[in-house]
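queue> holo job accepted (tryptophan)
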Amino acid sequence: METKQKTTEREQWGSKTGFLLAAAGSAVGLGNLWKFPYMAGKNGGGVFVFVYIAILVTIGFTLMAGELTLGRYTQLNALGAYRKISKKLTWVGAMGVLTAFLILSYYSVIGGWVINYIIKSVTGAISISDTETLGNMFGTMISNPIQPILYHAVFMIITLVIVFGGIGDGIEKASKIMMPALFIMIIALAIRSVTLPGASAGLEFFLKPDFSKLSIGLVLDALGQVFFSLSLGMGIIITYGSYLPKNENIPQSAVFIPVVDTAVALLAGFAILPAVFALGFEPSAGPGLMFVTLPAVFAKMPFGSLFALLFFVLVLLAALTSSISLLEVCVSYVVDEWKWSRKKTTMVLALAIFLIGVPTSLSFGPWADIKIFGKNFFDLYDFITSNVFLPLGGLMSCITIGWVWGTDNAIKEATSNGKVKFALAKVWCFLIKWVAPVAIGIVFYRSIF
Ligand code: TRP
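queue> job finished
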């Protein structure tokens, strides 16, 4: 790798595929494999999927293109990028850093559960098809006051070690192998799940929207999930965009990343929800959905325990390509702005994030009854970050790009001064100036009042 960013020559992605896979690696993570299926399950299935896709098409693509463009133009980290556009917008970048910090604190707790399930696959503890036993085993694991916190620590340490060395070609190389492997694996699982006897009820639940279940809470959940899953609204896409070469085709990348991300989320839904129905679980079971249904699906496959191990390892790797991007946002901010050394920053931040995450782990066990605004710690962190900070960050990036920086400037950058084709440029301008900010604004307003 080249020496770190001198002001003139900023480190760039080694190849187009490398960048696309790394960006997709940040996007594809626990949000797709773990969160999307249980959010869909909790929110009535098909109707959630419908709203999710509607938001993805209008706001998701728009902001992906916008953030990549802003990043490549400014060639700066999130905070610097906003500050370069206007000093008054610096707080948006700062909010992004805070959001990343909070998301990672509970993301790592779930990452810890995955590590625990890797061990359980090795020992064969989860190669049983009895769903009740699986449910109890999961409940016992997450409610233990100590064990999941240790796994949370292990996940944080792995994340720290990767970020410690700087990302360089590490992320790029790992993503190139892992992402395709994960993709194949999840397709296989989806096929097994939809062919289970009794899966059709689950397919119907997942695919057929029941609009009577539509509510403002559901729309807010879907909006938050789009941002969460695409890693939008807090600056990581701006940062990744800043490493893009000037001739790179931004409109194309802005389509590719969300398509891959959504494909994985939908496949995870196909892998999990039909099995939920076939095996007699509740789709609204919540955060445990992936951990109780999938082992039962594996138990019904030839070489199931081997596949279970492979699967949870891939989930861990997908989670890590996301968690390093979350930690990197915080680290690069502190290194740039506070002038701390990279090593010290990474250690101090990782420790702080670990500590902040501890209450979310306890909220699945001994602290289940501690409620703030009627929510336990896990729900609270998730709500504040996914449903408040990310959409607010997204709203501000629409305003920044569409109105402050201006769509003319943005189009010039996105098309590399007219050299790259951007067929939907006019539509994009309209979406980023009007549709996206107004829609986000309305959802916000309605969910608060
Ligand atoms: N998108 C990742 C996932 O789906 C999580 C993630 C990584 C993220 N970086 C982010 C979410 C930035 C919001 C903002 O698991």
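queue> The radius of gyration is 21 Å.
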